[in-house]
Design a protein that fits this description.
The termini are far apart. This protein folds into three domains: 81 residues, Arc Repressor Mutant, subunit A (Orthogonal Bundle), CATH 1.10.10; 81 residues, SH3 type barrels (Roll); 47 residues, no CATH class. The chain is extended. The protein has eight helices and ten strands. The chain is an alpha+beta fold. Helix 1 packs across helix 3 and helix 2 packs across helix 3. Strands 7-6-5-4-8 form a five-stranded antiparallel beta sheet, covered by helices on one side. A three-stranded antiparallel beta sheet has the order 1-3-2. A two-stranded antiparallel ribbon has the order 9-10.
Length: 279
Amino acid sequence: MGNRSNRDQWSARERQMFIERLGWWRGMVNRGDLHDVFGISAAQASADIQSYITLNPNALIYNLRSKRYEAQPGMTCKLHKPRLDDAVRLFLGGDSPALVSLSPAQPGDGIDVFRPLTRQASANVERRLFLALDQRRRFKVKYWSVSRGTARKREIAPHALGHDGYRWHARAWCFENQDYRDFVLSRMETADWPGAEFVPPEPDQAWDTIERIVLRPHASLNKTQKKAIEYDYGMTRSRLEVPVRGAMKEYLLAHLRIPVLDENGNSRPSHLELVKSGR
């Protein structure tokens, strides 16, 4: 009985959140909207809308002429924090991976989402890597290195995973270099079954340390351009503080298109170049 009651409460909450999203993003709510998505009766849809109006009295007003509930300009949300992804996924047919749609959504002509190029290791490599990480074990991988220009066996002991927005890498103790390094999963061609347990001789200071980097508009921009950047990144007084792990700082800077320098102060070379662009 308790489980059924909890499910009913959860379902009612989901329907009310859907009502709130409809009101916020589309400006109107009909009983038919709830029927189409949740398959509930007209009476239940009316009850849900009235329940939401009780919760948020200044959000919706019934328009007798159009026979629908219309959202007010001063509406505030009580059940969720509005995000554009919600509107795109639910109402424009976009396919945002960050959301789970309440109704089937098909790609639409009014929205397009760029998907980063797939960079993924084989399932067997990923499995062995995860087992080694989870059980704190050492193992060997055949690793393609851009800097060395070779592929060879490397023995590592992973302790964490990092994602730069495009790909996964393992933060691991490298037995060859006797320190912590990043190993990109998609560059691992093969992996052995995890071996003995391993405790690194020292902590990973770069991973454990949280830095606070400060960003500002580039000095070469004029006043108007700087103001545009301030709005774009939500800066306060031309500054934006970002907490980041020391081991992830390089990836954040690259993501922001801030040149990443090597140990000699030189910009690191690009890995790709455009050969041709066209239809």
